[in-house]
């Protein structure tokens, strides 16, 4: 039975999950996550490049939801309803933190807010207590919907774009053994409950609509400005008015493509050939580091810049 499953469970009997320094913690904790996902019947793969996705997981399930949380179907038909089995996949982004004053503080950047509802944040508390670890598992759509439903928006303040936007509202209460975001319950995302949510086959069966809905939530929350404690209410109103006016000009994707072409043509006509070629090389570099997952200041990126300069 599901309530008898211990999840997560330390797969490494000779080590304590929280006893790792920052130099090797990422590798060790991702292995901890991987082994626990395998125990629930998921096939687990490591991406070739680190683009913000730490693990890709796949599972064969009943499209009508008859597959247990710790079960993987091996035949072509569901043993309960005889429906054709489907394969679902999820893209896992792991955030591991040790609790400080019972707070799970973590950071998400703009690039982490993806519009694929199969993208999942797995927040790993490696030391909820001396002998217990917790996973808080939430899809990007559920994450955005949580804020929208509860009239919160961590993306609107300037701190999200200018600072590291560390979020400190996720808390564990040792007295009640419960997780919450502020005053809002997060137990539905904890451990097996979270795994049940991301195993929902409707995400895959209705993927196009799910992506549209996730995009709408992301736009609603991210394409808005909040004054915070720095600006006045009137400034907030004016900025949002101009922002919405500008966004409406390019609501049609075709207009965005045309704008990019116009900008490129303008630059081509108003610069010399060497400068224009250099610009094209730069955008080629940007695409390269996006694929590789490297930061612009990383050793890998600097080597790419050097290589491109030598080839000019």
Describe, in plain words, how this protein is organized in 3D.
It is globular, with a radius of gyration of 23 Å. It folds into 2 domains: 2-221, no CATH class; 251-311, no CATH class. A 5-stranded mixed sheet has the order 1-2-3-5-6. It starts with 24 loop residues before the first helix and ends with a helix. It is α+β, with helices and mostly antiparallel strands. The protein has helices spanning 25-39, 140-149, 158-162, 191-198, 202-205, 207-222, 233-249, 253-270, 273-292, 299-311; strands at residues 43-45, 55-61, 86-97, 106-107, 119-129, 132-139, 166-167, 170-173, 178-181, 184-185. The model is unreliable at 289-296 (pLDDT under 50). It has 10 helices and 10 strands. Helices cover 40% and strands 18% of the residues.
Summarize the structure.
By secondary structure, this protein is α+β, with helices and mostly antiparallel strands.
Q: Give the radius of gyration.
A: 23 Å
Numbering strands along the chain, what is their spatial order in the largest sheet? 1-2-3-5-6
**Total DSSP E strands:** 10
Q: List unreliable stretches of 5+ residues.
A: 289-296
Q: Count structural domains.
A: 2
Overall outline: globular
Q: Sheet bearing the most strands, described? A: 5 strands, mixed
The level of helicity is 40-55%
Number of helices: 10
Distance between the termini: 64 Å
Average pLDDT, rounded to a whole number, is: 85
- Output the helix-strand order: HEEEEEEHHEEEEHHHHHHH
Structural class, by secondary structure, is: alpha+beta
SS strand fraction = 15-25%
Topology of this structure?
Blueprint (H helix, E strand, L loop, with lengths): L24 H15 L3 E3 L9 E7 L24 E12 L8 E2 L11 E11 L2 E8 H10 L8 H5 L3 E2 L2 E4 L4 E4 L2 E2 L5 H8 L3 H4 L1 H16 L10 H17 L3 H18 L2 H20 L6 H13 L1
Parallel strand pairs: 3-5
Antiparallel strand pairs: 1-2, 2-3, 4-7, 5-6, 8-9, 9-10
Helix pairs in contact: 2-6
